[in-house]
Amino acid sequence: MYYFIVFLLLLVAQLLYFFIAKKFSIIDKPNERSSHTKPTIRGGGVVFVLAVILAWILGVATWPLALGILLVGIVSMVDDIRPLHQLPRISVHLLATGLLIYDISQGTSLGLWIPVLFFLLIGWTNLFNFMDGINGITVLYALVTLLTFYQLPALASDQELIVLVGISCLIFAWFNVRKKAKSFAGDVGSISMAMILGYLMIKLVFITQNPFYLFFFSLYGIDACMTIFIRLSKKENIFKPHRTHLYQYLVNEKGYSHLSVSISYAVLQLMINIIWLYGIGMEEIQWLAGLIFVGILIPVYFFLRRYAHPAKINLDPS
């Protein structure tokens, strides 16, 4: 009954946002770099922010987390409506990141890890945001990650938070995981979700002292990082919109549907998580298995990228 009431509250909030978005034309219109063809409501991912605020009200999320997610949610929503200058966005992201790291540091001394965590969390947030480009990919990947986190004893104290955010994902998925999406997550959705997942990941790594849990982000990580590497090698501006991620090539060049690619990313990541959790094991740091995994993942990625669009794989900028 408790979760049903939460579901209803978040569903009503989502529908209310859609009404407001239509009234004030918060619409994503397609352009030459878009993977969609019809105007679609932007910012539906605000329901992720509302889930964290609700979790704080119910006492299952801390105030630094709730405030941090609220801040990035507000600035991202404003940016979704009318693009902001980089300074206010970066300033708010740094402040929110500081709040999340402050929360994680309670009861422990992070010391020299603080600047590293700032870099990792900001980097992950931007990578996750870059990967939000086709129907279903963000919310399905988030659901897989949340489901995995829910299974871990190290995050037992965050299970209620994970469930509430998961419910918000299911609600948004109904409007996004379809051939013609009714709504996109927008920056408010992708950035807030990135920070939620990044927060849980950092807590997990510090509690367990096992960095290989980062492999739970491996598919997003390799597609985003390798795409940045390739674009830099071609002396491209990595901050300009583009359609050169592997998932974009698979959709736009090879003609696979949005949903088939999004589901593939989610299922493959789920399989990787299961292999690491129940096959290899996470009780100890498995260095050999980690090296083998990376040694397989990178060549497979480049093979798929060459398959998807051979002309774009040349790393020689000349």
Automatic annotation (TrEMBL):
Domain of life: Bacteria
Compartments reported by the entry: Cell membrane
Topology with respect to the bilayer: Multi-pass membrane protein
Primary location recorded for the protein, binned into one broad class: membrane
Keyword Metal-binding (UniProt): yes
Enzyme nomenclature, EC number: 2.7.8.-
GO cellular component, as recorded: plasma membrane
Cofactor(s) the protein requires to work: Mg(2+)
Residues binding Mg(2+): 129, 187
GO molecular function: metal ion binding; phosphotransferase activity, for other substituted phosphate groups
Record-annotated membrane-spanning stretches: 45-75, 110-130, 137-155, 161-177, 184-206, 212-234, 255-279, 285-304
BP terms from Gene Ontology: cell wall macromolecule biosynthetic process; cell wall organization; lipopolysaccharide biosynthetic process
Keywords for this protein: Cell membrane, Magnesium, Membrane, Metal-binding, Transferase, Transmembrane, Transmembrane helix
Keyword Transmembrane in annotation: yes
Full protein name: Undecaprenyl-phosphate N-acetylglucosaminyl 1-phosphate transferase
Biological source species: Cyclobacterium qasimii M12-11B
Top-level taxonomy: Bacteria, Pseudomonadati, Bacteroidota, Cytophagia, Cytophagales
